[in-house]
Amino acid sequence: MADLEQRYRALSRQFHPDYFYNAPPAERRASLEKSSYLNDAYRALKNPASRVEYLLQLEGLAAKDAQEASKQVPPALLEEVFALNEELDEVRELRAGGAADAEWKPRLERARAPIEAKRADHERQLQALSTAWDASVDRDAADDERRRIMESLRDRFLERNYITNLLAGIERELNS
Amino acid sequence: MSEVVGIDLGTTNSLVAYVTDGVPIVIRDRSGDALVPSVVSVAEDGTVHVGREAQRRLLTEARRTAYSVKRFMGKGREDVQDEARHFPFRISGEAGGVVRIGLGDREFTPPEISAFILRELKRRAEEHFAANRRGAGAPGEDNVVDRAVITVPAYFNDAQRTATRDAGRIAGLEVLRIINEPTAASLAYGLDKRHTGVIAVYDLGGGTFDISILRVEDGVFQVLSTNGDTHLGGDDIDVLLIQRVLAEQGGSPSPEQVQEIRKAAIQAKWDLSDREETTLNGRRFTRAELEALIKPIVDRTLAPCRQALADAGLQPSEIDEVVLVGGSTRIPLVRRKVEELFGKTPHSELNPDEVVALGAAVQADILITGNRDMLLLDVTPLSLGIETMGGVMSKIILRNSTIPATGGEMFTTAVDNQTSVDIHVLQGERELVADNRSLARFKLRGIPPMPAGMPRVQVQFQIDANGILSVTAREERTEVEQTIEVKPSYGLTDEQVEQMLLDSFEHAEADFAARLLIEARNEAENVIMHTEKTLRSPELAEIEQTELSAAERQRIESVLAGLKMVLNANDRETIQKWTHALNDATRHLAEVMMNRSVQAALSGKNVDDV
Fold this sequence. Notes:
Number of helices of chain B: 15
Number of strands of chain B: 28
Radius of gyration of chain B: 26 Å
Number of strands of chain A: 0
Low-confidence stretches of chain A: none
Mean pLDDT of chain A: 81
Oligomer: heterodimer
Low-confidence stretches of chain B: 605-610
Distance between the termini of chain A: 38 Å
Strand content of chain B: 15-25%
Mean pLDDT of chain B: 86
Radius of gyration of chain A: 22 Å
Largest sheet of chain B: 6 strands, mixed
Shape of chain B: globular
Helix content of chain B: 25-40%
Shape of chain A: flat
C-alpha cells in the first residue's frame, strides 16, 4: 500500500493539470486524460474490496456472476442469516407493538456482534488470500494453484459483500 | 508580463492576494484594510458602488443595495423563495430560470453582481502593483491583472462553480482555476511547515460551511473527503439576532431600519467573541444568551464533520491537526464544539479571514510557474449521476473521488430508428431524482437509424480540476461523435456571459475585440513555441522510428508554417482556425511523448529526471 501511495503521488506530480496550464491544448488534454485515468486507477486499487473486484475482473471471474450470486445466501452464512432474520422479525413485531427502545435495541446490538466478528474474519481472510495471490504470481505458481486461490478469493468476496448488506440492514432498523 | 492573483470571493467579505518571492501576501488599501465587503449598491444616477461605500448605503438605500449574493450563485428562482424575504433587494427571475436581483430599475444575475466585486479587487490589485513599481523606479510596466484563481466553498455544486467562473469572466479575468476554500487554507498553512499528517479544515464563513480532511505528504495535499452545507454561516446567526430584536420591538420597520438593526446585531455578535456581555436593542445581552440562541446552528456543522470522517475512514483521534477558517470560527462556542469533536485544540495562527486568499495566491503561482514543490489533489464533493427509469438517480462518479475524474455510461434506444436520446445529469447523494440537483439536460443527436437497442452510445463524463463537468459521447458501432447541447439548468450560456462582458461599462466593444485578437495570438504563439520545441527534441528521432509516420510529421510542419503565416493578420477567426488545426495535428505526438514519460516513471527512474 505504501508503494501504491508513493507511486500515485509521483505520477500525480508528473501529470496533474496544474503543471500544464501554460502548455499547448494537446498537452493540456493529454494531462487531463492521464491524471483522470491515474485517479480512477488509484481509487480502484486503494480500497481492498474494489481491488479484489478489479482482480476478479482481470482474471475473468466477472462481476456479472457476482451480481447473480449475491442474491443467494452464501452456504457458509446460512446459519447466521437464519438467526438474524428471526431476530429482525421479532424486533419488528416488538416495535410495531410500541415497545420502548431499551426493549429491542440491546437485542439488535447483540445480534450484530457475531456478524461484525464474521466481517472482521473475512477481511483478514481476504487480506491473506490477496497476499497469497501476489506471492503465487511472483513465483510463477502452477495454474491450478492460482485458480484455487482466485476462487476462494471470489467466494470470500461474495460472502463479505453479503455480510456488508446484512450489517446495513441492522443499521437501517436501528436508525428507523 | 501581467500579474496573477488569488481571490477569496466571500459571502460577507472578499479579498485579493499575490505571491512575491515565494511568499503570499494580501493586498490592503491605504488604511491597511484587506477586506472588501461583498456589497454592491447602484445609485439613482446609475453609479455602482462596491465595498465599504456600498455597505454604508445599506443604511440609506437598502433597496438599491445587494449583499450576501454568494448565496444566490448558481441557484434557480424556486431555490431562494424562502429566504428572499430576509433581503431588502428585489429577487425575481423566470420560473425554472436563474435568479435575478433588482437594484433600482436595473436587474442583475448573481454572477454580474459578483463581477462588480471582482472588478473592484482587480482595480485594487492593479493600483497596488502600479504603486509598487513606481516605488521601485520601474514605471511603464504592465500592471494589468487579468488572470486569477478564485475560491469557492468545497461543497459548491457544479452550477455554483460555473456561476463563479462566469463572474470572473464577466469581470474581464481569465479564471486560472476554481479551488476549494478549505483546501486553499491548508495550502497557506502548510507553507512553512513541511510536515506529514492528517489535517481537518473547519471553515465556517458568512454563508457557507465546509469540512475537509486532508493527508499531507511530500508536499502533496491530498483531500480524503469533504462535506458541508452551502447554506450555513454567520448570516444565519445574524438573522436569528435580527428576528429577536424585531420581536422585541414590534411594528413594521423600513428596510433601512432593519439594516440598522442588522448592523447592531453583527456588532453585538462580534463583541461577545471577546467579552461576556454587551448591549443589543438597549438592553444587556450576554454570551450565554447568544450561545443558547445559536447552538442549533453550530450543532448543524457536526453531522457533516462526522460524515467526512467516516468517508475518510478515520476516527477523530486520527486527525493530527485541526485548522479553523472563516470569520465565524472566532465565536467561542464554535471553538469549543470543534475541540470537543476532534479532541484537540484547533489552530488559528493565521487570520481566518485572510488564509483562503493566501492559499489561492499560492495556487495561482503554482499554475503560472509550474513549480512542482506542492500539489493539491482535491475531490468532487457530490456524486454525479444521471436519471434512469422510475425517476431514480444512477451514480456515475461518487462523491470524494479525486479530480480530475471520469465516468462512463452506455445508452441505447427504445424504439426503432430513434436518432436522439434525452439525458438528465444530476448531482447529489439522494436516491430519487427529485431530491438531487439538476445540472443539465441534453439531447444526444445524430444516432444512426438502427433497430431499437442496437446503438451503443458511450457517454463520457469528465470532471476537471476545477470540479466542473463536461460531457462527450460517441456511438460505438459507427464511431460517430455525438453533438451535445448542454443546457445548464440554472446557469448562463457562453453567449450570455460574453454579452455581459460586452455590456460591462469597462469594456467598449472595440477594446473587447482587440483583446480577443491578442488572446488568440498569444495562444497561437504558445502552440508554435511548443511544437517547435518538440520537433527539436532529441527524443523525436527515436519516436520517428516507431510511432510517428513521415506523413504525420510532414502534416505538422505544413500546418505550423501555415499558422506562422496568418499569425500577424488582424483576423482572430483565421488565427484560431489554424491554431486548432495545429493542435489536432500534434495531438497524437503529444500523447506519445507523454506515454514515454509515464513509462520512464513506471520503470523506476526518478521522475524529476524525466
